[in-house]
Structure formats: structure tokens, C-alpha cells
Design a protein that fits this description.
10 helices, 2 domains, single chain, 48% helix, alpha/beta, Rossmann fold, Phosphoglycolate phosphatase, DNA polymerase, domain 1
Amino acid sequence: MSAPLRLALFDCDGTLVDSQFAIFDAMSSAWAAHGLGEPDPAEVRRMVGLPLVQAVALLLPDLNDDRHAAIAESYKQAFQALRRRGDLQEPLFPGIRDALDALEARGVLLGVATGKSRRGLDAVLAHHGLTERFVTLQTSDIGPGKPHPDMVYRALAETGVEAARTVVIGDTTYDIQMARNARVASVGVSWGYHAVAELEAAGASRIVHRGPAVAEAVLALLDHG
């Protein structure tokens, strides 16, 4: 009898890759295109992980929905321009590749659940040679974004893994809340865009401070609950 399938579902921005500077550059360009001055870097950082239009709406609550959508479109164009020029910096965090290797060596399936567009996710995974590592890729442009549990549910449906054998790994409260809403365990990482205290308060099952420690924490949750 084969062993039950297990799944580690990773966030992308702030967990796998450090994209904060590229995100802020694109957001600054979008603000400028609409005569809005300069966004607050700390506030932009806090919104990473949410669906783009929702993030823009939270950053600019006094504007209407049409303006939010137009600014989001300007952001997409600015981000794509960065990529075309070769100015896009989205490095892997230290130890992440080791963590993926360790989980795969133990037979754990790998997936991504991100606020990034599918186009953006495909590009960053291809850049780092990671595309074939992940068996399910969930993005917010095909359904509700975080903290709604939809991306987790879709990943479970695609892979056939049970919720009890799934762990979400992320750096924001949106990741942890998504996991809780889907009733799966979660690992919060300390190198991302929300503070450790916030991740703990949101209900993270474990907190890790180094990339290689991700695998150990995920396996502990999968093996022992």
C-alpha cells in the first residue's frame, strides 16, 4: 500500500523570492503615472501577497474602483517593463533551494499559492529553474486571493492531497489566515514582509528563521501533526 500524498504549499513573494524592491519600483511608477506622488514603502510592503487591485484599494482608499483598476494596470505594465529591461530583481532567499530539495527527497509534493499573476509566477520560477519542481501553481488571477482558502482548495483538488497532509509556508498574515481558513497547518517565515509577532498572532503552527529549517518544520507537522 502506497504512502499517503503530502503537500508543501509555498507563498512566492517574501517566502521563496525577495521581490520587495521590484514591487516598490513598479508601484512607484504606477503612482507617478496617475499623478499620485510616491507610495509609502512600508505600506506597500505590508500589502504584498494580496490580489493587486485589492492592495491598491487599501493603499488608496479615497479613490474609486475605476481608479484602483487603472492604477493596477499601470503597475502591471511597469513590472513587465522592468522584466523586459532586465532590471527585475527577485532573488531566491538563502536556503530555499535546500529546503525544496529536502522536502522532495522525503516524497513531499511542492506547490505555490501566491498573489502574483500566473504570468509573473511562471517568469520567476523559470528564471530560477524551478518550474518543474512544483506540481500545482495557484494564483489570485483565477479566483479569490488570500486570505480566502480557495487557492488551497484548488491545490488539494489538483493534487489529491488531504488537508490534514498539507502545510502552507508563508511570510504574511494573509498566508497564515488562508491556511487557517482552509484548516491546514502553516509555517511562518521570519525573513519576509510581516513581523514574527503578527504571524504568531495569526495562528502560525511553526515559525522558522532560516531557509533550510523550512523542511524540518514542514516534515514535523506532516509526520506528527
